[in-house]
Inverse folding.
């Protein structure tokens, strides 16, 4: 995700030095005007701002600290901005070392507002750290993204990112399970997908990521290693805050299982292959390719046309061409799709409650939690349609329950019945 952010900074006229453990990875950035350095220390020397965007917590620590770490080259008065999704305890320790040499620290984990929104600066930043440092560097964040939120101290930014990711990962697992069940009952995957997109079950995950299941690529934009790490951090945070998180823990188990079964560098939606194996189906639609370079067609051109939704968020305008003709569905199949759409909606509702529990545990207001969810990859039709209620400190249950009270983990998350304690 760092490459497009560097490109935006260069386009805006900033001078950018870069470091990567694999120098070849910076080739495109060098061609656009960036300068390559051989160590983080040399890359950060005399810089006003140092930005890190790295996969795992230890990567951040190793690149910031030590004799050749970035802190060794940063002058007093400069600012470190970490856009990684990481363990906030790690960030606090690095910030402590930075403060000792007069360097301010901001955590600013990034969330795509659409599939790979970072490619066209369509991302949000959830910023934790000193407000004064944020205000001084807000312009840089706005250059790289669409919106940023100052959410509080270091730790609260990472917590926001984790709770929005929790919503996305849950929707990904649940929608994969629902699609597999549909296909097993004879419903073509593309027809089930269109039904879910047009229903109250829709979400960023369903609308913009499921196509990468339908073309069999499982989405090349992110590795399974990242998703396993994110969900592990989410459960760790829930333990620290003493938040139950029953659905979130079941989702984490699914990702952990996928992490053990597949290569860590496999594409992140391979988690749905667990459901495909369980149902004995494949979601891939013969001849279909998702309209994105991150799918089966690596040569697909970049997005150039965009749509704006009623809230003001933008997304790529992508045409989906399925070679197979739709089939006439039976009454039983139609009822199945309606039932599954209702179950997906209910899962969205339940996991939204768990996300709020995490945010409240970190001391965030309901209004702020709702705002960051709305402007994140975790947004759904359910969270959008209840926007007006989340401005109140006490969340209001608008409608009666749309499913029985939760006594077991929904089968769209856990294929085996799991009683809640």
């Amino acid at each position: 995700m760092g490459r497009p952010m560097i490109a935006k900074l260069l386009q805006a006229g900033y001078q950018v030095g870069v470091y990567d453990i694999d120098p070849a990875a910076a080739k495109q950035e060098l061609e656009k005007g960036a300068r390559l350095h051989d160590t983080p220390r040399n890359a950060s020397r005399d810089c006003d701002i140092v930005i890190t965007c790295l996969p795992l917590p230890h990567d951040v620590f190793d690149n910031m600290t030590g004799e050749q770490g970035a802190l060794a080259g940063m002058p007093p008065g400069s600012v470190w901005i970490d856009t990684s999704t990481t363990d906030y305890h790690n960030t606090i320790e690095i910030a402590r070392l930075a403060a000792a040499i007069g360097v301010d620290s901001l955590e600013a984990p990034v969330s795509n507002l659409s599939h790979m929104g970072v490619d066209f600066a369509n991302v949000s930043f959830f910023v934790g750290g000193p407000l004064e440092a944020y205000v001084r560097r807000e312009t840089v964040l706005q250059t790289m993204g669409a919106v940023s939120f100052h959410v509080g101290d270091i730790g609260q930014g990472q917590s926001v990112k984790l709770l929005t990711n929790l919503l996305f990962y849950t929707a990904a697992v649940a929608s994969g399970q629902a699609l597999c069940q549909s296909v097993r009952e004879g419903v073509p995957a593309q027809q089930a997908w269109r039904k879910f997109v047009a229903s109250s079950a829709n979400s960023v995950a369903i609308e913009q990521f499921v196509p990468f299941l339908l073309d069999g690529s499982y989405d090349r934009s992110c590795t399974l290693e990242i998703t396993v790490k994110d969900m592990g951090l989410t459960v760790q945070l829930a333990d620290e805050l003493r938040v139950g998180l029953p659905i979130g823990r079941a989702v984490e188990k699914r990702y952990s299982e996928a992490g053990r079964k597949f290569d860590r560098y496999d594409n992140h939606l391979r988690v749905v292959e667990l459901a495909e194996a369980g149902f004995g189906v494949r979601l891939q639609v013969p001849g279909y390719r998702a309209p994105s370079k991150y799918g089966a067609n690596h040569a697909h051109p970049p997005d150039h046309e965009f749509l704006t939704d009623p809230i003001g968020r933008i997304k790529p305008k992508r045409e989906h061409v399925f070679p197979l003709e739709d089939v006439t569905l039976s009454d039983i199949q139609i009822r199945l799709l309606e039932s599954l759409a209702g179950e997906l909606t209910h899962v969205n509702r339940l996991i939204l409650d768990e996300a709020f529990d995490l945010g409240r545990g970190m001391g965030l207001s309901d209004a702020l939690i709702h705002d960051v969810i709305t402007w994140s990859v975790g947004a759904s039709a359910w969270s959008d349609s209840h926007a007006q209620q989340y401005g109140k400190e006490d969340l209001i249950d608008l409608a009666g329950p749309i499913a029985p009270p939760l006594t077991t983990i929904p089968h769209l998350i856990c294929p085996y019945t799991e009683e809640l304690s």
Summary: The chain has two domains: 2-154, 160-384. The beta strands are 17-18, 35-36, 49-52, 79-82, 104-107, 110-112, 123-128, 147-152, 306-308, 314-316. Residues 160-384 form a domain with the N-(1-d-carboxylethyl)-l-norvaline Dehydrogenase; domain 2 fold (CATH 1.10.1040.10). The longest strand covers residues 123-128.
